[in-house]
Amino acid sequence: MKRPATKPKPTALQKAVELLAAQDHSTAKLKEKLVRRGYGTDEIDAAVARLTEKRYLDDEVVCRRQFQYMYEDGRLSLRQIMEKLRQRGFPREVIEACRPEDSREREEAVALSCLRMKFRAPAPAEKWKVFLYRRGFDMAVCEAAAAAFRAEAPENAEEDDGFDE
Questions:
Q1: Digits of tens for pLDDT over the chain (165 positions)?
Q2: Do 52 and 68 belong together in one domain?
Q3: Which residues have C-beta within 8 Å of that of residue 25, sequence separation ≥ 6?
Q4: Sign of CA dihedral 71, 77, 78, 82
Q5: 3-state secondary structure 4-65
Q6: Surface-to-core class of residue 95, CB atoms within 10 Å of its CB (0-12 exposed, 13-18 middle, 19+ buried)
Q7: SS3 157
């Protein structure tokens, strides 16, 4: 019995196109995936250069699109968004360019939304602030969101939380 012929391994360019067709990637993440699949550095660099030349690979455009999606989704702090993009391989300067000038109002609204989703039973205000701080909100935003949460639902705050405010 004859064995079926095995398919030849696709080139790095073909594999890169396949990966980009499935999902946007940063240049660094695409290179990382190609290295894991056993392609050589020269072949990877040639593939990335070709894709960049043809504008199929553009870190600035992809980073801005992903930033905007997460920012408008309203579930993550600005720090969380920026960290996720960094983990996806985007350069720090590209990520920083996406950051809006004034995001304080948005951060407070997202923090308040996080408190509404997480805390249904009474809890100390300090617990709210710690929760928000761990999610990447700065302390001023944590304070403002906790005050707004207490004002809209005083029954969620425990009377004596043991901390001076």
A1: 666 678 888 999 999 999 999 999 999 999 999 999 999 999 999 999 999 999 999 999 999 999 999 999 989 999 999 999 999 999 999 999 999 988 899 999 999 999 999 998 888 999 999 999 999 999 999 999 999 999 987 776 775 444 444
A2: no
A3: 19, 33, 57, 62, 88, 89
A4: negative
A5: CCCCCCCCHHHHHHHHHHHCCCCHHHHHHHHHHCCCCHHHHHHHHHHHHHCCCCCHHHHHHH
A6: buried
A7: strand
Residues paired with residue 157 on neighbouring β-strands, in sequence order: 123
Cα–Cα distance for residue pair 58/70, rounded to 1 Å:
19
49 and 22 within one domain: yes
Distances, alpha carbon 152 to alpha carbons 48, 113, 118, 149, in Å: 52, 12, 15, 5
DSSP type of residue 154: G
Task: Tell me: do 107 and 121 sit in the same domain.
Answer: yes
Residue 33 domain boundaries: 12-57
